[in-house]
């Protein structure tokens, strides 16, 4: 609700104006804000990412160690399958490197991300992960982006 409408309703509530006056004032306020919200929602709803990009760069040399682009449709299926697999992997995996990756990924709510994309809440490109890895003598920059 716009500030103008709220003020008119408060004036009506306080008895400063009557119902007829409030109606006239409310009808004089343009309804552009609601139309703009609908237009924006329609423009963004249904826009799907075409790919997901994963890039790992060595911060010391500036060289790209990993640069992968995968079709998002494939990722969408993989995320659903992977969510179930992560639960099993966390239970049975003893490899320390794999466990670190699972720990990083466990905080990502796949259903929420996919729902936000479907609803148009995410604008592209969207950076899901942007971090530096300084463990075990590594100096890497890791980036995962929906495009």
- Apparent shape: elongated
Number of helices: 6
* Strand runs, count: 4
Largest sheet: 4 strands, antiparallel
Q: Work out the count of structural domains.
A: 2
What helical percentage do the residues reach?
40-55%
The computed structural class is: alpha+beta
Radius of gyration: 25 Å
pLDDT < 50 stretches: 33-45
Order of helices and strands: HHHEEHHHEE
Question: What's this entry about, in short?
Answer:
The protein is α+β, with helices and mostly antiparallel strands and 147 residues long. The chain has six helices and four strands, in the order H-H-H-E-E-H-H-H-E-E.
Q: Topology of this protein?
A:
Elements (H helix, E strand, L loop, with lengths): L2 H12 L4 H10 L3 H13 L6 E8 L5 E8 H21 L3 H10 L4 H10 L6 E8 L6 E7 L1
Antiparallel strand pairs: 1-2, 1-4, 3-4
Helix pairs in contact: 1-2
Structure notes:
The protein has 147 residues and is α+β, with helices and mostly antiparallel strands. It has two domains: 3-44, no CATH class; 51-146, no CATH class. Helices cover 52% and strands 21% of the residues. It contains six helices and four strands. A four-stranded antiparallel sheet has the order 2-1-4-3. A hairpin with a 5-residue loop joins strand 1 (51-58) and strand 2. The radius of gyration is 25 Å and the shape is elongated. It starts with a helix and ends with a strand.
